């Protein structure tokens, strides 16, 4: 654990805990030789990259527990395989201070795993297991945490992330909304249409997506439409399903947009030298929720999220474990950008 002076002052907390679900797993990054597209029956040489890979729930909750510290309760809900990877991740999360009561290790099932491959030009793809322990997180398993959800009540946050079934995330959001928690969610492009049609959005206070996911929600094509139009169209679509919804939409170097229910705010990306952008979107969500937990307005939380996401890409790993208040403060002052006094004050030691 990092020293307490590198965490935020717990007296600033608007919320006191978070309960989340989403994928917990790992992966391998493989650099292919040659830019030509891998053939269906081709063998290709390459090498493993020195990258530590994590899945969505773990990434988002890691920065929250690191920045907000032990006075902020972090309760993940998920399943791991009772295998080497699962045991390593379980021990790491426990060591970092997660409340592990709802993380179950399932015998004879593998932990969620992704194999990512990259061509020399930086393009690539990934293969992800569809029969992992994360797929066994269902509504019934979510309901095991109902006492913790009830206890946090209006002082708690719900975080529903991809890589577990949509049914389980919907149940978590339903329970969160019923007991007065602030409910946040994100969805992949491939599941966005189903999420919209399922009625899940009515349980969401804050939706965090990237531009492609927003375009899918709006039913428009990114290659034919400007970012600002996609953002505004998607917000109108979201409002038709939930008039009170707030939204955060990211677009890499173009920065981010946040809708607070009344106004739309754009904030530029913090310019830095990116080593890897993997995990940056999840880091943004984490920074956003940290800011809200600390009592910031959504637009100020957006600034903090931009700092966390911008600093995350300076690491080759999907979690940048060097991020804390001090590194964020240094990054802010070296950025040359204008930040609100509230964000500056939070980062001061």
Summarize, please:
It contains twelve helices and 13 strands. With 349 residues, the chain is of the alpha/beta class. The chain has a nine-stranded mixed beta sheet with strand order 5-4-1-8-9-10-11-12-13, sandwiched between helices.
Task: Describe the fold and architecture.
There is one protein chain. With 349 residues, this protein is α/β, with parallel strands linked by helices. It has a single domain (4-33, 46-185, 270-347), classed as Ribokinase (UDP-N-acetylmuramoyl-L-alanine:D-glutamate ligase, 3-Layer(aba) Sandwich), CATH 3.40.1190.20. It has 12 helices and 13 strands. The protein has helices spanning 56-68, 84-95, 139-142, 146-152, 166-178, 189-198, 211-218, 227-241, 280-293, 298-312, 325-335, 341-347; strands spanning 17-21, 25-32, 46-48, 73-81, 103-106, 112-118, 124-128, 156-160, 182-185, 206-210, 246-250, 256-259, 264-267. The strands form 2 sheets. A 9-stranded mixed sheet has the order 5-4-1-8-9-10-11-12-13, sandwiched between helices. It has a 4-stranded mixed sheet with strand order 3-2-6-7. A hairpin with a 4-residue loop joins strand 12 and strand 13 (264-267). The protein is globular. The two termini are 18 Å apart. The model has no long low-confidence stretch (mean pLDDT 94).
């Amino acid at each position: 654990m990092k020293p307490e002076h590198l965490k935020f002052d717990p007296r600033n907390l608007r919320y006191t805990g978070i309960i989340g679900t989403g994928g917990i797993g790992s992966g391998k990054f493989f650099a292919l030789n040659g830019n030509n597209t891998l053939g269906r029956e081709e063998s290709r040489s390459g090498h493993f990259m020195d990258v530590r890979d994590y899945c969505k729930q773990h990434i988002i909750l890691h920065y929250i527990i690191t920045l907000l510290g032990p006075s902020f309760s972090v309760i993940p809900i998920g399943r791991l395989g009772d295998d080497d990877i699962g045991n390593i991740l379980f021990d790491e999360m426990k060591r970092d201070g997660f409340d592990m009561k709802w993380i179950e290790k399932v015998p004879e099932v593998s932990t969620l795993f992704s194999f990512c491959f990259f061509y020399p030009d930086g393009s690539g793809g990934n293969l992800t297991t569809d029969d992992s322990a994360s797929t066994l997180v269902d509504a019934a398993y979510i309901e095991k945490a109902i006492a913790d959800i009830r206890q946090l009540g209006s002082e708690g946050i719900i975080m529903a992330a991809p890589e577990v079934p949509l049914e389980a995330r919907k149940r978590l959001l339903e329970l969160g909304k019923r007991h007065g928690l602030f409910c946040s969610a994100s969805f992949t492009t491939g599941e966005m249409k189903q999420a919209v049609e399922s009625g899940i959005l009515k349980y969401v206070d804050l939706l965090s997506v990237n531009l492609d996911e927003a375009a899918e929600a709006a039913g428009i094509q990114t290659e034919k439409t400007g970012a600002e139009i996609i953002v505004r169209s998607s917000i109108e679509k979201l409002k038709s399903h939930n008039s009170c919804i707030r939204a955060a939409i990211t677009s890499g170097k173009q920065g981010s947009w946040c809708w607070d229910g009344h106004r739309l705010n754009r904030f530029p990306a913090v310019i830095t030298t990116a080593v890897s952008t993997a995990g940056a979107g999840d880091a943004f969500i984490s920074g956003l929720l940290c800011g809200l937990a600390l009592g910031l307005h959504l637009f100020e939380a957006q600034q903090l999220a931009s700092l966390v996401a911008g600093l995350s890409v300076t690491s080759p790993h999907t979690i940048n474990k060097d991020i804390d208040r001090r590194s964020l403060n240094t990054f802010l002052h070296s950025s040359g950008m204008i930040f609100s006094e509230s964000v500056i004050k939070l980062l001061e030691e």
